[in-house]
Amino acid sequence: MPKAQLNGVSIYYEVTGNGFPLVWCHELAGDYNSWDAQVSYFARRYKVITYNARGYPPSDVPLGDRHYSQEQSVDDLHKLLLHLGIEQAYIGGLSMGAGVALVFGLTHPQMARAMIIAGAGTGSTNTQRFAQEATDLAQRLEREGIGPWATEYAEGPTRIQFKRKDPRGWERFKNALLAHSAPGTAYTVRNVQGKRPPLFAWESRLRQLDVPTLIIAGDEDDPCIEPSAFLKRCIPRSGLVLFPQSGHTVNLEEPALFNQVVSDFLTAVEAERWYAREPGSGVAFLAGDTG
Fold first, then answer.
1. Does residue 289 register a pLDDT over 80?
2. Of 48, 171, 216, 236, which is most buried with the most CB atoms under 10 A?
3. Contact between 24 and 46 (Cβ < 8 Å)
4. What angle do CA 170, 174, 176 make, to 5 degrees?
5. What whole-number distance in Å separates Cα of residue 216 and Cα of residue 24?
6. Half-sphere exposure (CA, 13 Å, Cβ side) for 136?
7. Is the model's pLDDT at 281 over the cut of 80?
8. How many CA atoms lie less than 13 Å away from 127 in the CB half-sphere?
9. How confident is the prediction for the chain on average, in pLDDT?
10. How many domains would you assign to the chain?
11. Domain with 79 in it: what CATH number?
12. Rounded to the nearest 5 degrees, what angle is found at the Cα of 276, between the Cα atoms of 49 and 27?
């Protein structure tokens, strides 16, 4: 069982395949297994790295709020790449993992050859409410354990799409969530999720970012649609894809579509045909278009 000692914490990781490195960062309700469909597909062409964040066994679950933050998660990823001898990689993530991937790209742009940002920005449009809900949820997890919340969350308004499309896959997702560490999830919710800045706080830095970026969201993942459009408007070399009738867990709901879209993106990056948006495009309604 490969583990790396990073910042005093043991982090579990897996490396599959050969080629240019492609890293996937998991969401709050997922773990490294959430990327199985992507590992099987992309390991034919890339060296695929998946890992469990701190708080997610078999990675360590350090006790205490001070051990958890978005900044700490970004630094763990940075240290993991250094541990593996990786100087540059494609960095992708879903939800919480998308936030980590994005801030990693802002912090270490020379190490991010390209980014895949899926289901990002929950809570960005209602920061105070989201922070309070994160605090309340952490306290509930500490009182009740993982079971009651996980059962409800798996059938939430942005997860039910997965259940409708793929009941067996959704059942695996739910059972995996029920096996998560309650303390690790509580610490993560309170400190990584609840205390992270909204995506809108990064606007000036995003406008200066020169990393090719693919943004993906489900069109029924309401908390992420506006933040995803914001990222598209800000990041010069970005593209936005909305998956139809899809919720939050887009890589699990639509694995074939997700893999194809990401593969096409990486091919364009490698061919140097993923372009920056033209200055001023989308600002004027009729300039240059009289159709």
1. no
2. 216
3. no
4. 115
5. 14
6. 7
7. no
8. 9
9. 95
10. 1
11. 3.40.50.1820
12. 30
